[in-house]
Amino acid sequence: MSKTSYNYFRKITAFHGKTFYAASLLMGKNDANKAYTLYSLCRLIDDIADNPKNDQNEIYQLKKYLWSLKQGSFIHYKGLALPEIILEDLFKGMLFDQKCNHFETENDLFNYCYQVAGTVGILICSIFNVNHKQAWKHAVDLGIGLQLTNISRDIYEDAILNRIYIPKDWDNSLSTEVIRKFNSKSNQIYQIQKKLLLIADEFYTSGYNGLRYLPSKVRFSFLFAAKCYQQIGNEILQNQNFKKRAYVGRTKKTTCLLKTLIFYFNKIKKNHSTHSSLNLCSKKILK
């Protein structure tokens, strides 16, 4: 792949994924380029799913096109093919965003998080030649933790887009219209955010336990990115304002970097415990 392509993917990552771009600066150039390429693919799919002008047929056509590419493409990175069944699961999650359905159960929520984010964890493993199935399970958990943080942060923005990711078996009184009308300090929404983030922390813990499977040269970078994202949850709880988008500024990123250093050398445990995502993963891949 050309230097021009890598530079383009780097700019996409820097603009849309500031946390992940900051983490990529801790990687070597070749590894960072892999991460930029994968991020750009995921961003492309996400943008298409978020565009109301694109129907499901167009998304299926994109999938067909991506899988047909043979040389220098997103799917075939220097001869390494990404697992197509995992990409299929990723597309299923994006198709759900087109439908804007309301989850019935907590398990529906977790399944969606697996599809749109847990799959990305597996794809990251793939581009760094990590094929251990246990590693993939931990990667799924880390992705789910990140997505639950996203959902907690974006409740108001999603409601504006007529989307709601809070399962009915948590609170059946909520709808996008109701959420939009709430006061920004709504305790009802705050309690939902707390619940999402408490569960997210359990998935983060499992995800961190699997970082040992990644090559040492990229392990720290992904830990730092995840720690910054987990800090977004802390900002949400401190702000107690669901209409104000929480973020981690430079000063707190520096604090996260120090915490990551301490965690990296003291707390990456050698155990195989994972969270409840195991029954959500593609059985053909993780059996």
TrEMBL record:
Matches recorded under PROSITE patterns:
SQUALEN_PHYTOEN_SYN_2
Q: Name one GO molecular function term.
A: geranylgeranyl diphosphate synthase activity
Give an example GO biological process. Answer: carotenoid biosynthetic process
Which controlled-vocabulary keywords does the entry list?
Transferase
UniProt key word Transferase: yes
Name used for this protein in its record: Phytoene synthase
UniProt source species: Paraphotobacterium marinum
